[in-house]
Amino acid sequence: MSETITSFDIAEHLETDADIQAFLRETAANGDVSDFIHALNTAARAKGMTEVAKQAGVTRASLYKSLADDGNPRFETIAKIVEALGCKLVVS
Fold first, then answer.
1. Radius of gyration over alpha carbons of the chain, in Å?
2. Which of 4, 13, 71, 83 is the most buried (most CB within 10 A)?
3. Beta-carbon neighbour count of residue 25 at 10 Å?
4. How many degrees, rounded to 5, is the angle at CA 32 between CA 37 and CA 53?
């Protein structure tokens, strides 16, 4: 009997703003900078890249480029994306 392996995409399971916020909180608390940028990409895909780009005041193409694996987003861009996802950056 052969096994079928399917890929797992967490974005498909982030269904509410609360899910997205909890996911980003967990990543910020336990990951590094690249993990957090990857989590922002995942959260933006879950919410809809077009909607997040619109709320963040950036183009969809620039959002994809900023959050790509080789992207290097500016802090201002990260702050806008975080806010568009219903969160805020806090230093504690």
1. 14
2. 71
3. 13
4. 10
> Which pTM does this prediction carry?
0.90
pLDDT by position in tens, the chain (length 92): 789 998 999 999 999 999 999 999 999 999 999 999 999 999 999 999 999 999 999 999 999 999 999 999 999 999 999 999 999 998 88
**What does the domain layout of the chain look like in residue ranges?**
16-84
Is there a contact between 11 and 40 (Cβ–Cβ < 8 Å)?
no
Distance CA(67)–CA(47), nearest Å, equals 14
Identify the three-state secondary structure at position 35.
Answer: helix
